[in-house]
C-alpha cells in the first residue's frame, strides 16, 4: 500500500483503492479527461477529485491491477516515463501559462523539461513524495505565493528573463536561464536529500557493538542507511521541513555539490509575487481569444462532469484544459464570441462562474466516504458551507481571501496550514475554531462553538461575516 498515491502506487482507502494522476503544470487534454472518466466510471465509484496541486484522483477502484492501469492510462499518455518518479512529479504552474499577456514568458516548455529532468535522475528516488515544485511565469496568478518546497520564479533583469530559485518560499541568490533552470531545481532537491542524510552522519549508538566504526559509517555504501535514519525518515528531506533545522543558506551551499551547470548569482531584489487566483474570462496574448475559468467547489467532480469538461474543451477551445491549484479549470484558446456560450453551458452543468469564487478558499477531505477515520460527509458539508458563506459575504470587500477548512479528523489531510476558520470533526459533530491549523489541538481560546453538519454552514457564515465587520472597523 502506498502512503502517497500515484498512477502506479495504489493507496487503499475506506472506499477502496485510490490513484492520483499527476499532471505537471495542470495540463490535460480532452481525450485524456475522457480516459480518466472511463476508468472512474468502469472501475471506480464514479468520483474524480481535483487536488490542491491540480492533479486528479480516482477513488473506489475495484478489480484493479497494474496491467489494467497501464492499459487505461498508458494509451492516453498519462503514465510517467520512469515509474519510480511517479509520486515526485508535483509541479504547479500558472493555468494561464502561454496565454497571459501579463506574463514575463511562456514556461510550458520549462515545466516539461523539469518533469523530464526529474524522471531522468535516479538520484531523486529517495526524495519525499510530498515534495512540491512551482514554476511562476511572472503573470497575474502569482503561483510562487503558494506553499512549495522548490520554486523557479521568472523575473526581468539586465534585458533578459531569468528564473530565481526559491526554497520553501524564500528567494535565494541563485538564478538561471530558462534552459538551465530545471537543473538548478534538481540540484536543490539533491541538496535536500544529502543534508537530511548528513543529519544522522554521526555513528548511531549501538552500531559500534556490531563492529561498525565511524569511518565505515561515513562511507558511500552506508548512505542508504543514513538516509533512512535521517530526521526520522526520508519524508524529512522536504525543503519546507528541512529548513526548520537547516538554514536556507546551508541548502544553497550544499547545492553547489550537485550543480550540473555553472551557477549564477544575483542579489534578491524583492519578495515573491502575491498569489492572486481567478476564474475570470481572461483576454489572451492574441487578438480575439480568451481563457475561460470555472470553479469546482471542494474539487469534487463525477464522471459526468469530467466528460462534460472534455466536451466543452473540444467544442469551444483547442481540445486542452488547464487545471488550477485553487479548484478551478481553465479553457484556453476560446474565441471571444464563443465565451458566453461556453459559460452558459458550464452554468447549467453546475460549475461556479462567479469571480468571487476565489475569495473563499474552502478545503474539505474525503470524510466518511473515503477515510477510515472519518465519520461525517465532509465534502458535502463543505459544499453547503461554501454556499452559505458566499451568500452571506455577497460583494463585501475582503482584505484577503477567506480560508475555510472542513476536516474529518485532527490530521487535516486536505489543508495542513492555518485557516481563518477550521471546522474539526469531534464525535460526529464539528468543533469550530478561528485562526487554527490541524495536526495539533487548537488553542481553547480560538474555539467558537460546536455544530452539527446541518448547523455548520450558518455558524461558519456568521463567523465570516463577523471577520469582515471587524476588518472594516479596523
From TrEMBL:
Record keywords, A-Z: 4Fe-4S, Heme, Iron, Iron-sulfur, Metal-binding, Oxidoreductase
Domain Nitrite/sulphite reductase 4Fe-4S: 85-172
Record keyword DNA-binding present: no
Pfam families cross-referenced by the UniProt entry: NIR_SIR, NIR_SIR_ferr
InterPro entries for this protein: Cbl_synth_CobG-like, NIR_SIR_4Fe-4S, NiRdtase/SiRdtase_haem-b_fer, Nit/Sulf_reduc_fer-like_dom_sf, NO2/SO3_Rdtase_4Fe4S_dom, NO2/SO3_Rdtase_4Fe4S_sf
Any one GO molecular function term: 4 iron, 4 sulfur cluster binding
Entry coiled-coil feature ranges: none
Domain (Nitrite/Sulfite reductase ferredoxin-like) ranges: 14-63, 285-347
The organism's place on the tree of life at top rank: Bacteria
Region (Disordered): 434-455
NCBIfam families recorded: CobG
Name recorded for this polypeptide: Precorrin-3B synthase
Naturally occurring in which organism (per UniProt): Rhodobium orientis
Organism classification: Bacteria, Pseudomonadati, Pseudomonadota, Alphaproteobacteria, Hyphomicrobiales
Gene for this chain: cobG
Amino acid at each position: 500500500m502506498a502512503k502517497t498515491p500515484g498512477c502506479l502506487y495504489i493507496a487503499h482507502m475506506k472506499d477502496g483503492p485510490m490513484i492520483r494522476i499527476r499532471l505537471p503544470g495542470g495540463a490535460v487534454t480532452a481525450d485524456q479527461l475522457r480516459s480518466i472518466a472511463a476508468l472512474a466510471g468502469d472501475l471506480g465509484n464514479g468520483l474524480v477529485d481535483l487536488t490542491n496541486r491540480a492533479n486528479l484522483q480516482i477513488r473506489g477502484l475495484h478489480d484493479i491491477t497494474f496491467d489494467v492501469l497501464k492499459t487505461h492510462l498508458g494509451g492516453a499518455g498519462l503514465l510517467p516515463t520512469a515509474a519510480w518518479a511517479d509520486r515526485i512529479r508535483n509541479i504547479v504552474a500558472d493555468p494561464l501559462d502561454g496565454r497571459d499577456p501579463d506574463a514575463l514568458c511562456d514556461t510550458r516548455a520549462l515545466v516539461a523539461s523539469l518533469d523530464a529532468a526529474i524522471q531522468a535522475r535516479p538520484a531523486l528516488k529517495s526524495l519525499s513524495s510530498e515534495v512540491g515544485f512551482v514554476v511562476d511565469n511572472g503573470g497575474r496568478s502569482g503561483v510562487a505565493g503558494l506553499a512549495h518546497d522548490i520554486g523557479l520564479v521568472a523575473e526581468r533583469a539586465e534585458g533578459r528573463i531569468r528564473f530565481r530559485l526559491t526554497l520553501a518560499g524564500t528567494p535565494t541568490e541563485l538564478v538561471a536561464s530558462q534552459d538551465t533552470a530545471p537543473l538548478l531545481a534538481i540540484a536543490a532537491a539533491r541538496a535536500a536529500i544529502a543534508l537530511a542524510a548528513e543529519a544522522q552522519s554521526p555513528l548511531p549508538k549501538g552500531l559500534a557493538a556490531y563492529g561498525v566504526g565511524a569511518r565505515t559509517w561515513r562511507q558511500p555504501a552506508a548512505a542508504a542507511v543514513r538516509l533512512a535514519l535521517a530526521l526520522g525518515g526520508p519524508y524529512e528531506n522536504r525543503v519546507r521541513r528541512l529548513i526548520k533545522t537547516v538554514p536556507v543558506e546551508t541548502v544553497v551551499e550544499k547545492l553547489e555539490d550537485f550543480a550540473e551547470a555553472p551557477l549564477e548569482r544575483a542579489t534578491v531584489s524583492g519578495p515573491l509575487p502575491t498569489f492572486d487566483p481567478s476564474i475570470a474570462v481572461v483576454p489572451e496574448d492574441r487578438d480575439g481569444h480568451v481563457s475561460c475559468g470555472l470553479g469546482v467547489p471542494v474539487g469534487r467532480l463525477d464522471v459526468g462532469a469530467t466528460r462534460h469538461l472534455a466536451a466543452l474543451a473540444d467544442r469551444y477551445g483547442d481540445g486542452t484544459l488547464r487545471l488550477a491549484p485553487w479548484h478551478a479549470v481553465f479553457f484556453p484558446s476560446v474565441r471571444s464570441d464563443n465565451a458566453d456560450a461556453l459559460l452558459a453551458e458550464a452554468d447549467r452543468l453546475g460549475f461556479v462562474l462567479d469571480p468571487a469564487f476565489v475569495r473563499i478558499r474552502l478545503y474539505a477531505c474525503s470524510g466518511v466516504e473515503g477515510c477510515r477515520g472519518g465519520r461525517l460527509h465532509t465534502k458535502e458539508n463543505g459544499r453547503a458551507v461554501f454556499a452559505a458563506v458566499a451568500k452571506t459575504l455577497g460583494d463585501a470587500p475582503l482584505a484577503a481571501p477567506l480560508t475555510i477548512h472542513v476536516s474529518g479528523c485532527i490530521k487535516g489531510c486536505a489543508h495542513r496550514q492555518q485557516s481563518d476558520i477550521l471546522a474539526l470533526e469531534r464525535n460526529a459533530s464539528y468543533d469550530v475554531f478561528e485562526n487554527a491549523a490541524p495536526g495539533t489541538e487548537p488553542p481553547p481560546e480560538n474555539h467558537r462553538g460546536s455544530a452539527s453538519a446541518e448547523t455548520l454552514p450558518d455558524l461558519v457564515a456568521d463567523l465570516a461575516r463577523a471577520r469582515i465587520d471587524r476588518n472594516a472597523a479596523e
